[in-house]
Each structure stands twice: as C-alpha cells, then as structure tokens.
Amino acid sequence: MPLYVPDPDNLADAADLIEELGAELASRYAAAEDELIQQIARRAWRDMQLQGVLQQATLTAEQTNALVDRIAQNRAYAELAAFRSLTVRELQFLAIEVADKLRRYGLAESVMRIAATEGEAAAAAQLRMAKRLPLIGTTNATQSQAVTALVFDLKSRLEAMNWRITRYPQDAYQRVVSMTASNQLLGTTTGRIAQQRAVQRFLGEGITGFVDKAGRNWRIGSYAEMAGRTAVRRAYDEAGIWRMQQSGVNLVTVVGSLAACSKCAPWIGKTLSTDGTPAGDIILPSAVSDSAVTVHVDGTLDQAKASGWNHPNCTCRTVAKLAGLPGVQSTFKYNPQLEQERADQRALEREIRAVKRAASVAPDDITRKQAENKVKELQGEMRGFLQRTGRSRSSYREQLHFADGK
What we know:
- It is a single chain.
- It is built from nine helices and eight strands.
- It is α+β, with helices and mostly antiparallel strands and about 400 residues long.
- The strands form three sheets. Strands 7-4-3-8 form a four-stranded mixed sheet. Strands 1-2 form a two-stranded antiparallel ribbon. Strands 5-6 form a two-stranded antiparallel sheet.
- Helix 1 (about 15-65) packs antiparallel against helix 6, helix 2 (about 65-105) packs antiparallel against helix 4 (about 145-180) and helix 8 (about 335-360) runs antiparallel to helix 9 (about 365-390).
- It is elongated.
- Residues about 1-10 and about 185-190 have low confidence and may be disordered.
C-alpha cells in the first residue's frame, strides 16, 4: 500500500490519488484472481490428459475384453477420480488462503484513511488563501462519521469479493470437468482442441458476477477499481467539506476532467452549497478584502448527486468556493469526442489484458505464442490510437495484474 504523507504546501493532485488508490485495490484483487486461474488452468489441462488416458484404456478394454486391459481401465479411472478429489480440496484451501490474505491487508481502512487525510489537508491548504473567514462554521456531520460510513460500505464490497474468491476455484474447476467430460467431444483431435479452446475462453472470463445498482456487470479487478476509486473520491471530498465547514465555508466548486462524462459535465465549474442554500445570488463577506461580494449559487450538492453527478468511478471532486476569488473551470464545456476517446482507450486496454490472460492459461506453447502475437498487434493499435488522439498511455492498465473485463 502506498504511503502518503500530507503536505499542504505540495499536495499530490487529487485525481492522481484517486487513480493510484483505485489501481492499488484493482491490482490486489486482479493478482489474486490471476493466481487462482493459473492454478485452475494447470489442473484443468492435467484433468483433460487423464480423461484421454481413461478413454484410451476404456476403448482398449472394450476391444480386447482382456483382464489386464480391464485392470488398466480401472486404474485410469481411479487415478482420475483421486486427482479430482484432491484438486477440489487443494483449490478450496488455496481460495480460503487467498481471501484471508486479502482481509489481513485491511485495504478498506488503509485507502480510506489516506483519502480522508489527503482531502482534509488539501482543503486546509486552499483555505489558507483566504485572508478572512467566518469565525464560526456550521457542520452537518463530523469527518469521522462520514468517513466511517464510507469505510463500512467499501468493506462490504470487498467482503463480497472475498466470498466470491472462496467459491470461484471449486465452481470453475467443476465447470471445466463438465465441459470436458468424456461423453461430450473426446475421441478426436479436433474435439480435444475445441474443448481446450472452450476451457481457455471460460478461464479467460475470470471471476465475474459483480453487479452495480445500474445493473452493469463487472469482473473482480474492474469492480475493485471502481469501488476503490468511488470510495476514495467520496472520502476525499467528505473530509475536505468537513474541514471547509469547520471554517464557515459552505460553498464548493466542482472540478473535473476535460473528458468528463455527460452526467458530470453540467456541474463542472458550478458553485454548489453544502448546507442546503438554494440556487440564487447571495451576499457574502469577501475572503480577500473587507468588502461584501455577490456570489451566484447554482444549486446544492445533493441536487448534483441526484442528477447523476458523483456516479461510480467518477473522478470529479469539490474545492472550496471562496467569495471574492475567481471561479475554477468556469468556462468548462462538455466535449463528447474526448469522452468517447477515453472510453475507446479503456476498451482497447481491456482487450489487451484479455489476450494476455488467454496467453497465461494457454494449454500449449503454440496457443500461447498465438496469443502473444495478438498482444503485440493490439499494442500496435494502441500506439496508433494514442498518436491520433494525443492521449497519454496508461501502461499499467494494460498489465494482467491490474484488472480485467468490463
């Protein structure tokens, strides 16, 4: 886990913090997924080999009806049965061990503590720009209460993933067995190759089954990143808002990416109240002089959230709106092309990771080499895409240990 030390004079950009902590969670869970899939794949290919031995022994015994061939058939069957029984126990133990290791990291508490500390430090640094602040602030909740609720929510999400990890290896292996049972396609080379490809595709799907409130399906690495980034940004904001309210500042401005989505774009650069002050003009003491100034409030923070801002995976954040100081991103305009380019890059990154996963669970050197060549081809497409759009490459997102899937 990265160690962040708050430095009000040199704070890391909030977007980088959100990105890095989200990637940290994604990396942990994607690495756990990769470890389990590698173990399942190794046993799956061995299971298929033993099925081939059993089938050959069965055919020989049926053709000759010799006692020695019947004994060989029974031996092959016993070896396959013993292998499957041992494999299920081994995978169950491995899954429990992996899940327990993830729990011992205390990931939810760690990332949320970092986010809250950084958020409060950033707000404090910004407030130092004001020469005058109200002496008494109004607060709706304490920082600890808000962040504690977010920690609990993130812990619940991570525990759901931990539970899925403990079930996945056994379920996946049994699915592989059903896909390669000797009464299906075994018996011809073409059949075995088709089964290998089917198993490879199945294992390449990884640990799935995570659905958000919007009904979207996620893989475990991507879900971990989404949950982490969402929780980190909200904790960062909650801690910052608490610090602002402690100083009597109840107005914030939304700051977002140039490639912001259509839900967030209408709120970027707008002034929102955190205490329920409705839209309209209000008169406030200037933070930089002894005069009073008129500030236009565009709405409340709750209204922005209700309209879709602050959605899962959102990286927008809020900064203090200080009366008398110019607004931030006040001229922001939504650019659908930039949003689409970001989505296209993420899709290409997922495709690269998917092919890398196919290479990692390949049943033989030829299949692995084919997948590795496809990776090079996709990486060439990525370089061309970046050259056309001018976007920056996020190489870590293309790594297998980061995350997979949509």
